[in-house]
Amino acid sequence: MPAVQAQSLEVMHRRRGYLPEKSGCGAGKVTHRNEGRILLKDDGTFYPLRYDLCVAQADAPKRPVWVFDGAVAIGVGIVSVVGLANISPREQELFERSPDFWAYLLALAQTLPLAFRRIRPVTVLAIVVAAFFVDQSLDFPASVASIGVPFAFHSLGSQLSRRRSLQVGIPFAAFLIAFTAAGIRYVDSVDWGTVVVVALVTLVPL
Predict the structure, then answer these.
(1) CA angle 200, 165, 111 (to 5 degrees)
(2) I need a surface site. Which of 1, 28, 63, 206 has the fewest CB within 10 A?
(3) pLDDT tens, residue by residue, 91-120
(4) How many angstroms separate the CA atoms of 199 and 186, rounded?
(5) How far is CA 27 from the centre of its chain?
């Protein structure tokens, strides 16, 4: 009798007993139903036995994770650049600098690295946080690109172990929280509510 994987065979102790016709195979496996005989008594009586042979099903070829993440990163980057290019005069009055080449470059630096967020989460976090810091320090208009920060922290928490993500993420989170808190003194649009939001989006994913 072929070896049966996973679950042990349970023989039904009755004259016409056999294994229930249900598969013990898990997800991703196919069932090959087989029949045989098994000796149950010393008098040589055989009873029918049915058993399942679980065979791993070949996985379909998968695309690299960076393909999907890259498409999302490019999409967010384009939206960020378009948003900066079409900022209204009223919104522009809230910031010291108008969008220029550096503003677009920093917006892309906060979004495009997300294509590799599941491959190099630590490197991506460092690049995104650095770009966000420079962008905010130069007081360029706010854009969708800042969404790269919570995405980078989420990637760190989901791809690394709990201990490792805390070791790497807490210093970056503390830096951003302190930077935001310092902005209360110089930027009217920043208050303690903003600090709380930054703390939540950086610490919770870890």
Answers:
(1) 65
(2) 63
(3) 888 888 999 999 999 999 999 999 999 999
(4) 19
(5) 22
Phi, psi for 30 (deg, rounded to 5): -110, 155
Given a cut of 80, whether residue 46 has pLDDT beyond it is: no
Residue 64, C-beta contacts closer than 8 angstroms, at least 6 positions apart: none
Six-digit token pair at 163?
Answer: 């201990």
d(CA 142, CA 70): 23
Token look-up 């870890």 returns 206
Q: In whole angstroms, what separates CA 23 from the centre of its chain? A: 32
Strands (E), the chain: 29-39, 46-56
Residue that is written with structure tokens 């195979």 in the block? 25
Q: Give every CB contact of residue 51 below 8 A, 6+ residues apart in sequence.
A: 1, 4, 9, 19, 33, 34, 36
Q: What angle do CA 73, 112, 158 make, to 5 degrees?
A: 65
What does pTM read for this prediction? 0.70
- Token representation of residue 134: 């420079």
In the chain, the amino acid numbered 55 is: V
Measure the CA–CA gap between 172 and 167, rounded to whole angstroms: 10
